[in-house]
Amino acid sequence: MATRTIGENVTTTTTGVRRKTFSETYVGEWITTTDHKMIGLMYLITGFFFFVVGGMEALLIRTQLAEPNGKVLSPDVYNQIFTMHGTTMIFLFVIPVLSGFGNYIVPLMIGARDMAYPRMNAFGFWMLLFGGIFMQSSFIFNQAPNGGWFMYAPLSEITAGHAYLATPHMNADFWLLGTTLLGISSISGSLNFVVTIFRLRAPGMSINRMPLFTWMILVMSFLLLFALPSLTVASGLLLLDRHVGTHFFDTAVGGDPLLWQHLFWSFGHPEVYILILPAFGMISEILPVFSRKPIFGYTFIAWSGVAIGFLSFTVWAHHMFAVGLPSVAQAFFATSTTLIAIPTAVKIFNWLATIWKGKIRFTVAMLFALGFIAMFLIGGLNGAALAVVPFDYQVTDSYFVVAHIHYVLFGGTAMAVFAGLYYWFPKFTGKLMNEKIGKWQFWFIFIGLNVTFFPMHILGIFGMPRRVYTYPGNMGWNELNLMASIGAFVLGIGVLLFLFNIVNSLKNGEAAGDDPWDAYTLEWDTSSPPKKYNFLEIPVVRSRRPFYDKKYPEIADWKSVIH
Amino acid sequence: MSQEQKDRVELQQSVDSVNPVTPPPDSTSSETQAVQSEETAVLEEPGQGQESVLSEEQSERPRTKKRVRRRTKLVNVEEILPHPSLWPLALAVSVAIAMFGIIAGPIVCGIGVLLIIVSIVFWSVERR
What we know:
The complex is a heterodimer.
Chain A: E1 12-13, E2 16-17, H1 26-32, H2 36-65, H3 75-109, H4 118-136, E3 159-160, E4 164-165, H5 171-199, H6 212-243, H7 257-291, H8 298-311, H9 327-339, H10 341-355, H11 364-386, H12 389-395, H13 399-429, H14 435-461, H15 478-508, H16 546-551, H17 557-560
Antiparallel strand pairs in A: 1-2, 3-4
Chain B: H1 3-18, H2 30-36, E1 42-44, H3 49-60, E2 74-76, H4 77-80, H5 87-104, H6 106-125
Helix pairs in contact in B: 1-3, 5-6
């Protein structure tokens, strides 16, 4: 009789040990896995690999711009590099890494044994990997996308009007097809998250008791489901323009390039919240644990995330103020954009109230979480400034916008990702990351990102357009550009320290134990790393901090307050 | 009684012994009563594997003779942990080839579509 043992990969018979099947070998196990934890790790590894790729592209950009009249790259290669930097960081780093955390953590947090559709989960990961390979392989053909990460038409058409060639080669095709592949990955992942969160929560875990990270992954998944079709449609139409001869975006023959902008940004702005909401969720998990307090204003934080999700679909045209929208439309989109600052501020005030008078432990995860609040605040405030139409006219498509997006996505999301990794690394691997190296990394990254991106505000106000290949030496931009380039390399050192810390911790890290942070949520109620089946018994939840209740039954949350 | 049936009986006894339920501290609240009526999903571990998994859990749990919860169904490992599968990877490769075919040529695209169909069929008929 053949038997199967959970957590072991040798299949035995009553007569002895038989040979392993392919899926039981080391490589085969990774390739054929349907386990959410292994898939989550693969997402993380892939995401950080592309982070390094996108980071090297950023260093090339900053090297080119360090001095006026730079000649480090050719203009065409420069266009490819800045396009692929944005595309890689958004589609191949941030989304995969957030999906990786979601895949690994969400089922554990809600007391489930796996995602609802494990095979579709694996499919989503492989689509991401091949989508990424597909996009990056364009460099091999020297035809990497070169029209910016939002691929505006008619620049991305084969011809602009009757006379001018715009993007005649495959550059734009790689981008359009690559984002479609990545879109399939995101849709399958999002569906899985929604069904998992709605259907597989542990007994007693009402929606009002879900961990906030799970809440934000849920909102993110809905945003992806509703926003991505717009990009897919836009990509399809542009492909038809390019290869079948339609003219959806070609003004010269009755098309409308603004249609591309509307379609792209009705995906693109929700996308910004897709990239930041899970980061909000991570911060909402980390701050209470290292402040030794329950989260302040749980309900407000959860529902402000939902409000941000709804509002994110009403703000897209603030990217298009300069195209000459009617004044009513400008007023509407300026108002809705300003409105979105309210739920965002609700979160920030609740986080501050959470750490207020807490017994704060300044671990690396906590440092990154605090750094996140400060940096995201800057990114949020200059975003609110961009919602003011006259100001937007002045700085649109300038380095001010570049500064804004980097404060949101690097100062915000990337800082939260680092915080999350230091926080959950012990659960993933059973090892603690080195705190000393981590603190060095934090300061390199914190200083590096401010030295890099803060001067870009001033450059933007001084009129430096984004995406310029180079600039003359008499514009007053020289010192600020040099400063930004030095900061980029400081950031690079911080990232190298991070990679070293991961390798070193995997090799020599201190054993973490199951609950190194004295945390509150269910993932810490499993072994580190968790067994394949996660929980021998599905836990029963009675408050928002189920693991805290279990550890401290005499002062359990469900005894003292209504949860 | 076959060996498998014996194993299952033995496992049932083992599971019963390692999953005692301590009554919640406040047994008068309505929430506690709700918890008591919950059915617990317990892993069924056929054969030798039970020892490695269950015994270490066994040592961590307090024992009590009083049984409060009703345990009605054992869930088989095969039901809760899906088999590994190569077909998600195969389907993803196929879709990528088909997409590449859009710019590389109709033959590549056709191969991709064919592989997509094959992957979907084999995925569908694979034993769950």
